């Protein structure tokens, strides 16, 4: 037992260093976003000036607006379709082929999905814009929603559905009054996940946005700014994005934990 | 009941058939055609794109990609394994919080996380300036826009997955086998090498495949941290599509990427199926509690 204690100390030290490795880059950006000079070279005093610059930048605001539209639209589509898909998959015999098809969008490399969708839209002579990004994001979001909702359905006591039907409730009433309230935390967690994935997605949006400036999303704007060079404005963007994502993930975790409990 | 199931699944399966399966079939078809003079598709069937993909220039990028993705995998595993092990040794109520903490950075924007390393690594960046101020270096170290930066960026982004994959593998091991080994006089090292490590091979394989697959098709990290000095498969597909406008070639490379990915996932599935067959009954059904 004593021999294992140094190992334990080493393991915990290692774990601590891994967390430092994971969080220091993010914390540095957050700290710099409040640095007056905006540069990592010297701390010249606390300032929120970079946040002011952000709010005054119409390109960033329109990109953020576009991302919000894309994320909300693709989340609505994928939450409805993905939840129905999960319910269908959980009924009847499990099929490895269906499972593989539904898992495919989660594991296919982004760049491949990006060129495949661009080729498809071009072949159909579709004009590209925000709506083609929405359609593209729904592809992987349906898969993620179906996965999250299925986990919830697995722990779901099906006898209450049968009881509802036996007591004369219609299928629709049963879904609305019995199934949906039970799986709701899972569905909301899935929707939050879909929203987070969509609002952060870059490469597929980049390929399927078309040439117009009007369909630049937030990540596309960030990419353009990073390519341009290190600018302090990105630190302020980073702080907002990180804070927002962390909030969404923790919320979704909370809902999921309640769902499992 | 069959009809009901069909109705439930029809929108989802229809959506995936139309916007996943059909587009993938289209790029597979494109990969077998010729490029038109002005960037379009000439519908003459050819294997030329696949032959060109093993020609010198593309083969070099391909080998670079395999080496970089392989290095990232080999670096991420020894960082992630002990971290996952350490989490699995904590009290049960703490394990979940520690896992969320490990996964949390992953959920913030990938571009932002990559940008953070530009801030840290560039010539006027935090690391070089700190070292200069401390008098340890005269010239800034070349930390950015090279292979080192790419590997670092990939490891940083994908270590959380290694931790997750290995945690689920390690936490399924009961303490009994390890205790038996200790009781029989096995040292900590031999217990790890002969008991824990072999039983967690499926977790190692899952984590390794994850890092490798995500790395080899990566576009953003080689682009931003490599500065285009070491283009990888993802950058090559990107440039074939958007710069060279050679869609058949880009499609062939995309198809090769998918084949590599499927081969690795298949190998991993076989490995974990075999491992779970071999250790049937030797793994405790409940996740392990903290060590006594």
Count of DSSP H/I helices of chain B: 13
Low-pLDDT segments, ≥5 res of chain B: 281-292
Strand order of the largest sheet of chain B: 1-2
Q: How many runs of DSSP E, i.e. beta strands of chain A?
A: 0
Mean pLDDT score of chain B = 87
Order of helices and strands of chain B: HEEHHHHHHHHHHHH
The largest β sheet of chain B comes out as: 2 strands, antiparallel
Tell me about this structure.
The complex is a heterodimer of chains A (261) and B (292). Chain A has 261 residues and is an all-alpha fold. Helix content of chain A is 79%, strand content 0%. Chain A contains eleven helices and no strands. In chain A, helix 3 (58-90) packs antiparallel against helix 8, helix 4 crosses helix 6 (130-154) and helix 8 packs antiparallel against helix 11 (232-260). The model of chain A has no long low-confidence stretch (mean pLDDT 88). With 292 residues, chain B is mostly helical. Helix content of chain B is 71%, strand content 1%. Chain B has helices at residues 2-30, 48-53, 56-88, 92-103, 110-121, 126-133, 147-170, 175-183, 188-199, 201-216, 220-224, 233-242, 247-278; strands spanning 34-35, 41-42. Chain B has a two-stranded antiparallel sheet. In chain B, a hairpin with a 5-residue loop joins strand 1 and strand 2 (41-42). In chain B, helix 1 (2-30) crosses helix 13 (247-278), helix 3 crosses helix 7 (147-170) and helix 3 (56-88) packs across helix 10 (201-216). Chains A and B meet through helix 1, helix 3, helix 4, helix 5 and helix 6 of A and helix 1, helix 3, helix 4, helix 5 and helix 7 of B.
């Amino acid at each position: 037992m004593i021999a294992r204690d140094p190992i334990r100390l080493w393991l915990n030290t290692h774990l601590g260093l891994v967390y430092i490795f994971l969080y220091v880059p993010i914390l540095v950006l957050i700290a710099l976003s409040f640095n007056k000079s905006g540069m990592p070279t010297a701390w010249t005093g606390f300032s929120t000036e970079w946040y002011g610059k952000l709010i005054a930048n119409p390109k960033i605001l329109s990109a953020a607006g576009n991302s919000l539209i894309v994320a909300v639209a693709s989340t609505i589509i994928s939450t409805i379709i993905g939840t129905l898909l999960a319910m269908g998959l959980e009924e009847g015999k499990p099929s490895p082929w269906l499972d593989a098809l539904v898992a495919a969008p989660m594991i296919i490399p982004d760049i491949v999905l990006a060129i495949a969708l661009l080729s498809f839209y071009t072949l159909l002579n579709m004009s590209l814009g925000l709506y083609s990004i929405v359609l593209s994001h729904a592809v992987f979001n349906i898969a993620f929603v179906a996965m999250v909702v299925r986990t919830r359905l697995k722990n779901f006591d099906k006898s209450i559905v049968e009881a509802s039907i036996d007591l004369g409730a219609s299928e629709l009433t049963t879904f609305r009054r019995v199934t949906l309230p039970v799986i709701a935390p899972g569905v909301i967690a899935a929707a939050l996940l879909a929203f987070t994935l969509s609002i952060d997605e870059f490469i597929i949006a980049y390929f399927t946005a078309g040439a117009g400036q009007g369909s630049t999303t937030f990540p596309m704007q960030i990419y353009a700014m990073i390519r341009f060079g290190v600018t302090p404005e990105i630190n302020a963007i980073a702080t907002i994005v990180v804070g927002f994502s962390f909030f969404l993930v923790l919320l979704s975790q909370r809902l999921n934990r309640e769902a499992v409990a | 009941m069959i009809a009901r199931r069909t109705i439930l699944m029809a929108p989802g399966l229809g959506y995936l058939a139309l916007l996943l399966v059909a587009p993938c079939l289209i790029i597979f078809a494109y990969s077998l055609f010729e490029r038109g003079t002005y960037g379009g598709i000439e519908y003459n069937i050819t294997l030329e794109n696949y032959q060109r993909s093993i020609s010198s220039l593309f083969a070099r990028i391909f080998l670079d990609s395999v080496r970089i993705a392989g290095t990232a995998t080999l670096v991420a595993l020894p960082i992630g394994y002990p971290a996952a092990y350490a989490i699995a040794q904590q009290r049960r109520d703490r394990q979940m919080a520690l896992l969320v903490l490990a996964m949390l950075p992953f959920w913030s924007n990938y571009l932002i996380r990559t940008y953070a390393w530009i801030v840290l690594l560039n010539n006027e960046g935090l690391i070089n300036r700190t070292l200069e101020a401390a008098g340890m270096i005269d010239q800034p170290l070349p930390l950015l826009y090279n292979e080192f930066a790419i590997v670092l960026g990939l490891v940083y982004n994908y270590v959380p997955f290694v931790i997750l994959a290995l945690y689920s593998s390690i936490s399924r091991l009961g303490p009994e086998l390890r205790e038996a080994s200790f009781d029989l006089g096995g040292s900590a090292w031999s217990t790890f090498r002969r008991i824990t490590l072999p039983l967690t091979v499926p977790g190692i394989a899952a984590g390794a495949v994850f890092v490798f697959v995500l790395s080899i098709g990566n576009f953003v990290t080689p682009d931003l941290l490599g500065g285009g000095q070491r283009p990888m498969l993802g950058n090559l597909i990107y440039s074939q599509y958007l710069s060279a406008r050679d869609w058949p070639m880009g499609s062939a490379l995309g198809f090769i990427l998918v084949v590599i990915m499927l081969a690795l996932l298949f190998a991993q599935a076989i490995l974990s199926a075999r491992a779970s067959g071999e250790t049937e009954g030797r793994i405790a059904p409940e996740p392990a509690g903290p060590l006594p």
